[in-house]
Write a structure and sequence with these properties.
Layout (H helix, E strand, L loop, with lengths): L3 H51 L5 H9 L2 H43 L4 E3 L6 H7 L3 H6 L4 E4 L2 E6 L2 E11 L14 H11 L12 E11 L7 E6 L1 H15 L6 E3 L4 H6 E5 L2 H7 L2 H14 L4 E5 L2 E7 L16 H15 L1 H4 L11 H5 L2
Antiparallel strand pairs: 1-3, 2-4, 3-4, 4-5, 5-10, 6-8, 6-9, 7-8, 9-10
């Protein structure tokens, strides 16, 4: 395996090309969105003007006569809208090129860091897999038409443990209009309207994406018949003992499980369909390892165990394997972040000892006999 310095030198030419594309993209995006907002603002001012200063009972007839003489002005406004629309078409194609270049860089890094893994650029984590994990039940229940988008999937095996992981975005959208986001030009116009939506509603643009971050699935060599979910214990941290009571009243989740590890209880809340099976999956050693991983990741962790699989989610608004929109990708820290995140994911199997196969029989089978 190559060290980071060697990998950085190899991909630097690609990083420089990507950085140039990102600069052009930001410029076109600024011009396009700015022009669209300006045209909408002018339209609003025009409507307000004719409503409060022209459209009166005494001037109705004169107003329509004047409008008949201003067809040229209307056409000019329509031409301006068309110009803005066509500006979004090259923006869309440039965005696609940027994504492909970023995927190429990510694939090269994976090749050197994890040669046994395969990066599939056009693959995604299926929605039914996310639903099966029971980790994003709230988001999926809120919007049954949610779509999953991803910039590719990483797939491989470590010590006999099959792993799949990807950066995903759970998009809050309707099936009736979602296809518009795949049409060059119109897709960026749709996104632009999202940024203008707060002018007309209380919902912000962040509501468009219900979740973004890492989704991982791995083999879990314990036979489980139910579901155990481990979530960040945000409520208890804010409300203390009262928060713990409210957690037990959460009817949308399974039965609350109180673990014996005090440090784990302060950091996580556990729900399960079976109290005994939850403790079979979350042994004292496993809880300590999850706590250590939480500290190592320095991000919230969401974990579930179900039907021979462990699912893990790490929320990250900017993506685990993506470059930040505002950073200079030619600088080492940008690539180092991607490099470190890949290595972190590869150590999960060893950190949680998912490759231990001595668990295939035991408590769970005895409990359900």
């Amino acid at each position: 395996m190559k060290n980071f310095d060697d990998i950085y030198k190899e991909v630097l030419p690609l990083l420089k090309k990507l950085q140039r594309q990102r600069r052009v993209y930001r410029l076109l995006k600024f011009i396009g969105y700015g022009a669209l907002q300006l045209l909408i603002l002018l339209l609003v001012v025009y409507v307000v003007y004719i409503t409060f200063f022209i459209f009166t009972p005494d001037t109705i007839t004169g107003f329509f006569i004047r409008q008949g003489r201003r067809n040229a002005d209307k056409l000019n406004y329509i031409y301006s809208l068309q110009l803005v629309f066509f500006l979004f078409i090259p923006l869309s194609f440039l965005y696609t090129r940027i994504r492909r270049k970023q995927q190429e860089i990510f694939s090269l890094v994976v090749k050197h860091v994890a040669p046994n893994f395969q990066f599939i650029p056009h693959a995604i984590i299926p929605k039914n897999c996310i639903d099966h994990s029971k980790l994003l039940s709230k988001q999926l229940e809120k919007n049954e038409n949610a779509y999953v988008m991803s910039d590719g999937k990483l797939k491989g095996k470590i010590d006999g443990v099959d792993i799949e992981l990807a950066d995903i975005s759970l998009l809050n959208s309707s099936r009736k209009i979602f296809f518009l986001y795949y049409i060059p030009g119109i897709n960026f116009l749709m996104v632009a309207l999202l940024y203008l939506r707060p002018l007309f509603t209380r919902r912000s643009v962040e509501d468009f994406s219900d979740f973004k971050g890492l989704f991982m699935t791995a083999d879990f060599h314990k036979q489980l018949h139910g579901t155990t979910v481990v979530l960040p214990d945000v409520l208890e941290k804010r409300a203390g003992f009262v928060g713990k009571i409210l957690q037990g009243m959460n009817i949308k989740r399974d039965e609350l499980v109180h673990m014996e590890n005090t440090a784990f209880e302060k950091e996580f809340v556990v729900y399960s369909t079976d109290q005994i099976e939850a403790r079979y999956a979350l042994t004292p050693v496993m809880m300590e390892r999850i706590l250590a991983m939480r500290q190592k990741a320095n991000k919230p962790l969401m974990i579930s165990f179900r039907e021979g699989k462990m699912y893990m989610i790490i929320p990250e608004p900017e993506g685990i394997f993506s470059f930040k929109p505002s950073e200079n990708v030619t600088k080492p820290p940008a690539l180092k972040r991607m490099y470190d995140n890949i290595q972190f994911c590869l150590t999960i199997v060893d950190d949680l000892q998912l490759n231990t196969t001595l668990w295939k029989t035991g408590c769970s089978q005895q409990h359900h006999k």
